[in-house]
Amino acid sequence: MKIMMVLAGFVLMVAYCVISTSDVAQAEEVLGTGTDSLLGGDLTDPEDDGAPDADEGYNAIFTANEEPGFGGGEFSFNVFDNILGGGNAKWCCGRGGGIPDEGLHVTAELEESYVLTHFTVSSANDVPTRDPTVWEVQGSNDGEDFTTIFSHDGDSFWDQRLQVVLFEAGEDFEAQTTRYRFFRHVTFDTASNPAGAYFQIGEIEYFGDSSLTPVDPKTKLTTTWGSIKNIR
Q1: d(CA 25, CA 13)
Q2: C-alpha to C-alpha distance for 109 and 43, rounded to whole angstroms
Q3: Which terminal residue of the chain, N or C, has fewer Cβ atoms less than 10 Å from its own Cβ?
Q4: Angle at the Cα of 89 (from 169 to 210), degrees rounded to 5?
Q5: Which residues are 167's β-sheet partners?
Q6: CA 14, 18, 23, 25 torsion-angle sign
Q7: pLDDT single digits (tens) 152-208
Q8: Which of the 8 DSSP states describes residue 186?
Q9: What pLDDT is stored for residue 95 in this prediction?
Q10: In the chain, what are the domain boundaries?
Q11: Whole-model pTM above 0.85?
Q12: CB-CB contact of 109 with 182 (8 Å)
């Protein structure tokens, strides 16, 4: 009888661990598919009035280590054009030789510094094996030294095309205590890399709070931060 009780307890413990791990892995929220599922009003274009073809109306300066620019050639800045679709509404598809060691990265430089509260990353319109599988969101205040805010190494998050996925501080990544002026998305690998056209992203949105002040690392363990989220 005692052995059966011990075995039952062991089974319950294993089940609890599996369920808990699954919950953590699936904490991110799918908002839907297509442009209408984007939150809008993010830090790079709070008024949603950016003109991508002219690179005007944005509250950020964009840079990238590959294919910088909006529009033709499916360039990197298209991830900030507030549109989900094919062609020039996405960043695609990588040059010969595969993804470089430093990854493929696109950066938004803001006038003010913000604590990142949540962000969305969207899949593009075709070929699921081009989706990022190893990637990070990073922050910086000088544009040179970047700190990892969120990282993923595994399968693609997206199971549909043009799918918008939300990631929130305190749930999907550690609640932030440092403000940054630069936010960078870096892709290190995809299932297709390095063969052929091996990479694509549809859209990126960053949201933050400029009123929060950095916390002394020595007091970080005794400080409690709530879940902060922009009104959708």
Answers
A1: 18
A2: 10
A3: N
A4: 30
A5: 119
A6: positive
A7: 999 999 999 999 999 999 999 999 999 999 999 999 999 999 988 999 999 999 999
A8: E
A9: 81
A10: 28-212
A11: no
A12: yes
